[in-house]
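### Sample
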Amino acid sequence: MFSPHGPSLRELVIQALSSVERGYDLLAPKFDHTPFRTPDGILAATADALRPLGPFGQGLDVCCGTGAGTQVLAPLCQGRITGVDFSAGMLAQARATHPDAEWVQADVRELPFAEDFDLAVSFGALGHFLPEERPALFGGVFRSLRPGGLFAFPIGAPPPLTSAWYWTLLGFDAVMRVRNAVWRPPFVMYYRTCPLHALRDDLTAAGFTVTTVPLAALGWREDGSPRYRLVLARKK
């Protein structure tokens, strides 16, 4: 599916019936040929928005997957770049593609760092965490940053109620909830559990000062609001 080099429908079904970790281990060799990998346009817009705030020292990619976030961190960070993920398969792909970075296998709800980084980023991963898990995630990122450090991630505007995309995402989340109610192990991936106001509240509770900037290169909605914003969470 998706491309001649992408996973087959059968492979996607097997992934969806696995745990999150096992599913991504299976998908890893073909992950970059799917829409699940963050598009280069979003990565470039994020880098452009962060550039005036740098340069930075050491960089951390939280839930790094196959390492696409290094495209953002490499030109902005003068020190070591580290990616962390719990999927050994995804890390193997990242290590092969970006051998100059450091790759760490860990549960990001229990990050093994303490004031080691100046910039942390994350792309497309928040849907893998239930709302009650976000405090552990954000708390770990907070501890991993040096004082004054920055945690940044892009977030898309919610689709309007009248759009087909709204109902597609609603249907996907409903199917995932049914799947997790009747099948074990669970596969946590929801698109509608991360509204900006909830993320802002959780980041503030973790100790961050939170602002956002529009990613203008990614366009604007009919009401004049940006299609994407970059969340900037600064460690006080």
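The longest strand covers residues 145-156. This sample (Class I SAM-dependent DNA methyltransferase) is used throughout the tutorial notebook.
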